[in-house]
């Protein structure tokens, strides 16, 4: 099992609303190394800049979405024609101070979270 951090821009997708209503969502899978059973930590970009959600991966390499979350898509242009998805199941929500960008940098994060990356001990 691997742990991954993936970014979410809340200008494009209301991840909080989606998890409150659905508990499972389909997410674009841009890294084919992600496998069923892996843990995904969703990092919310500006203005929050913190990991807010922990999820588990239920399905990978889906050619199309299976869960209708369209009401939470605020601007779908970057995702409309994306051909590879994974199913994420909500596990836990964190206070934004627990894994803020500053905390992650203190734990060894180099640079910014701009795409899927291995967590490598940044979260527990």
Structural class given helices, strands, pairing? mainly beta
User: How far do the termini sit from each other?
Assistant: 13 Å
**How many helix segments?**
2
Kindly report the average pLDDT value. Answer: 93
Main sheet record: 6 strands, mixed
Describe the strand arrangement of the main beta sheet, using strand numbers.
Answer: 2-5-4-3-1-6
State the low-pLDDT regions, or none: none
Shape: globular
Helix and strand pattern:
EHEEEEHE
What would you report as the Rg, rounded to the nearest angstrom?
14 Å
Helix content: 10-25%
Structure commentary:
The chain is mainly beta and 124 residues long. The chain has two helices and six strands; from the N terminus they run βαββββαβ. It has helices at residues 15-21, 101-106; strands at 3-8, 24-28, 39-44, 50-62, 85-93, 117-118. Strands 2-5-4-3-1-6 form a six-stranded mixed β-sheet, covered by helices on one side. The radius of gyration is 14 Å and the shape is globular.
